[in-house]
Each structure stands twice: as structure tokens, then as C-alpha cells.
Amino acid sequence: MSLLINIIPVIIVLVLLFRRHHMLVAGLAGGIVAVIIGGIGLSQISDIFIDGINNMLTITVPILYASAAVMVSKAGSIQSLVELSRRLLKGKISILAGIIVLIQGLATYTAGMGAGNTMVTAPLVAAAVGAIPEVIGAMAIISAVGFTVSPASTETVLTAESAGRDVVAHASAMLPYTIIFYLLAAGLAIYGVYRRGTLINKKAEEKDEFANQGNGTLLKTSIPFVALLAMVVAGSSLNSLIGINLFTPATSVIFTAILTVIFTPLSGNKTSEALVDGSRFILTTLFSVGIFLAFINLISELGTFEQIAALARQVPEMIVLPVAMILAFLIAIPSGAFTAGVLTLTLPTLSSLGLPSEAMGFVAIATGLGTQISPVQINVAALAEGFGLEIMDVIKTNFKFIVGMLVLIIIVAVIVV
Fold first, then answer.
1. How far is CA 29 from CA 19, 247, 285, 338, in A?
2. Are residues 38 and 171 in the same domain?
3. Is 366 within 8 Å of 326 (Cβ atoms)?
4. What is the pLDDT of residues 329-359, one digit of tens each?
5. Are 275 and 66 in contact (CB under 8 A)?
6. Are both 146 and 208 inside the same structural domain?
7. pLDDT tens readout for residues 235-264
8. What is the three-class DSSP state of 130?
9. How many domains does the chain have?
10. pTM for this one?
């Protein structure tokens, strides 16, 4: 009975969200009900509220990369690279979409996080093909898989520790499945572009501006974005190679700004203005997501998510894994800002049953997929900005692809574990 009562705020939030009410309206409604049910005091409410906003506004790397991506876009660097790629591939732009999705996956796997990379790669693929649903879904899928199996991520560390296995050994065990899921995501993007064509919303004169430029001019203008992409994807590898920590998020943005002044028409003043302007959307989004997260944290004070996760203990052992994956996926939808927090609720059950680390790895992937249809997931916000969409539009677009991928991964998990 306790769970039936405590889950009411979650249901209210989800119903309002899917009826396309603003996330803050949905969060407020659920938060008020949670306060009434749990008798939460005003001082505790205030602390939870401030912590929610603080947690989101301290996510600085996506802010930096978002600003840099907008800066190079305004300089024409992304568009120049797209035009060059279009000429090189002789119009086979679907291949470019697949390559960019794979770049996103490799960058996410290397860094252990997806949102910062999405800030850079999403505008590139959006400029190349537009807001094609399959491409957006592929970006979400490959990001979710990447950061939940990467040896550099908190999620993988938690998963390995729960199984009592070395992090590198666990990541290596998950690598074959990672490759398969990456190829499926890239294939989805290629299929989407092949089927729909490009859906670019540009002014004709903007197309002509880049189409009429020579390859040398396009190559020169594209240098800042290519450099930014290289530093995001291979920064840690370059640091290991040269022996010093030169390529950090901060230095990457500074180097990119300098290259923008040198190789594009933007002056130093215009480049600085573009960099500052680029932060506006992501900062506004993080602020609103932080408030929504505060309402979700009020609901979590009731123990709702722990109770949902505990349901996995009540089912027959042979279906524990698929049930745990589904529960982790569902919990991640309203509370997807922190995937690691969701895993701390679900992994103990599997650990107590002595399941292998691969089983827990599949639960981690399912959790990551759930976050990609969560309004509080920063990667969803990054996709929204990169493709010029609202967050709820991205969630609506992702839903069928994410659920389809979840079903596929559950089938794979049941077969191999």
C-alpha cells in the first residue's frame, strides 16, 4: 500500500509531461503531492530545492562546449565542413550522418560522458541533414550506451564494483556488445537519412553562400570546428601522447576561439560575443532542469524509487534480469539527471543474487536508455539545442527508438547471460 501511495506524485508528473505541460508545472504538481504525503518540512524543502539547482549549474563542461559550438557555427565553420563533406562523398550525405554518430559514440566512450560531446556533434549533423528522427534517436542511443559502458564513467565503476570485478575487465567484457549497439545506432542514422533525405531548414542564400565557395576557402573556414571536434574526441589521448594535460575543456574552447579569429571572418570582438551568446540556451535549460530536479528529489524523499527497484526481488529468479532492466529504465525517466544514482537503487538486487557483471552492464545500458527520454537529462537538452527543438519534442522523437532498443537489449541480455 505504501508504494501505491508514494508512486502517485510520479504518475502525476509523467501524465502532465506527456500531456505536454511545461516540466515545471508537472514538477510542481508532483512535488506538492509529495510534500503532503511525506509531511516534508519547509526547511528541508528549501535545502532540496537549492541543491537541485546547484547540481545542474555545476555541469560546466557542456556549457563550455555548447558555447564553443555556437561560436564556430556563427563563424560558418560547421557549414563549411558540411559542404566539404558533401562534395567529398558526392552527395551521399547519409554516410556522413552515420560517421558523425560513430564519432559521437567514440567521444562518449573516451570521455565517459555524452552531453559535452553532443554539444559539438549535434550541430554538425543538424547542419548536414536536419532534424531527422532516426538521427536524433541514434545520437541518443549511442550516447546512452557509450557512457554506461565506458571505463572512464562513474556508471561503469559502480557497475563493476557491484559485481566485484575490475573496471577494465568489466568494460572489456561489455565491449563486443558495445560495438554491436554502436553499429546499430549508426545504421539507424544512415537508414533515416536514406529514407527521408535531408530536412534542412536554411535560407536559399545561405546555401548558395557556401556552395559557391572554393574548396580552399571552405577548408580554411572549417579548421576551428575540426580542431574543436578533435580536441573533444581525442583530447585525453593527445594528453597521454605528449605527457602533459594540455587539452582540457577550458583550453579547448580557448584554442578554438583563437582559431576562429585567425581562420574565419569573425573578429575578436564578434568571436567573443558569439561565445557568450552560445551559453544562453544551455544555461537557461540547466536552470529550469535544476528546478524540475528539485521537485523530483522531493518525491525521492518518500522512498518511491527505492520501493520500485525493490520489486525486482519479488519475481522468479529466471526473470530477475529483464525485470530489473525494465524497472531501471522506468526509474530513469523522471530521475534521469544522475544515472549513477538510479544504478545504486537497482544493482544491489542483482549483486545479492550473484549475477555476472555483464548482467549488471545490461541494466546500466537500460538505465542510460531511460535517461534519453527524461526531461532532466542534460544530453536530451544538448540534442534539443543542437537540432533546434524543444526538449519534449526530442523526447517524443526518441521514444519509439529508445523503447525499441530497450527491447532488443533485453533479448540480447536474456540470451547471453
1. 14, 44, 20, 22
2. no
3. yes
4. 998 888 776 787 778 777 877 777 777 889 9
5. no
6. yes
7. 878 888 899 989 988 999 999 999 999 999
8. strand
9. 2
10. 0.81
